[in-house]
Amino acid sequence: MVEIEKTRERRNRIRAPRVAKHAGTGEEPNFTSTFAALGKLKLGNSGVRVSASAVDINTGKTVLSIDDRVALPTASIGKILLLIEVSARFDNREFAPYGILDKVAGASVGAAGLWQHLQAPSLPVADLAALVGATSDNLATNILLQLIGLDAVRARTESLGLTRTALLDLSRDTRGPDDAPQLSVGSTIELSWLFGALARGEIVNSIASQRVLGWLSLNTDLSLVASAFGLDPLAHRGADHNTLLVNKTGIDRGVRAEAGALRGNKRAVAYAASIQFDDTSLQARLRAIEVMRIFGYDLLEYVH
């Protein structure tokens, strides 16, 4: 009953009406650059949809809120939900971290990932989760989903109180009329909450949360918001210049999204940003990426 009540309170908090705001004036950074950049991007093109959220991990204070309840495509960010379910099953001893899974014909997908390029025909479950965290590995994602099932991931998502965030499908090279139109969708308020809860050890339990954070800390994609943090994409599991990051990106045609947790020498913040745009030119894509980087500069100022 206690868990049900907590879930109900979380859903009510997430669904509560919100207005766009920033952290204020004075000594505290105010995210005005992010507001200006997102506003300019949206006003300059009617086909652009934007959403952003940032929440102080320690105080729970919302420091940025821009259309944060809108569900937008988030590409590979939804794979976090799969990693959470995998981690929870390790705790329940439903399968061992060292259980071996084989490559399966038809599961291979191009684009993201390393396993498709490796000779190893089989890998342990924990290694597949690490590949998903490090390179958003599509083949590893599909093999884990074949084992666990989308229904189990959806049930876990609902148990967390998430109503606008979901992993919808397997990774696919092409999406037909019978497939989900997106790999995943999400609202930035829910994604920032999720990373904050992971950082506090509140997702499933502290051990399961830390396991998920460990996989995500391997992420090699620092091309969006995290490009502002000056970290080594291949080695940032520890603090560098008092800056510690765990993040997950989602990249697809016309989609740029990122969610994460950033800790500095003053504060810690959980954040998420999504941009959906008409990817008709390199200039349009670069404008979206630059806006994400501007958000990163404001986050860096906030934590330091």
From TrEMBL:
<dbReference type="InterPro" id="IPR000871">
    <property type="entry name" value="Beta-lactam_class-A"/>
</dbReference>
<dbReference type="InterPro" id="IPR012338">
    <property type="entry name" value="Beta-lactam/transpept-like"/>
</dbReference>
<protein>
    <recommendedName>
        <fullName>Beta-lactamase class A catalytic domain-containing protein</fullName>
    </recommendedName>
</protein>
<dbReference type="InterPro" id="IPR045155">
    <property type="entry name" value="Beta-lactam_cat"/>
</dbReference>
<dbReference type="Pfam" id="PF13354">
    <property type="entry name" value="Beta-lactamase2"/>
</dbReference>
<feature type="domain" description="Beta-lactamase class A catalytic">
    <location>
        <begin position="53"/>
        <end position="273"/>
    </location>
</feature>
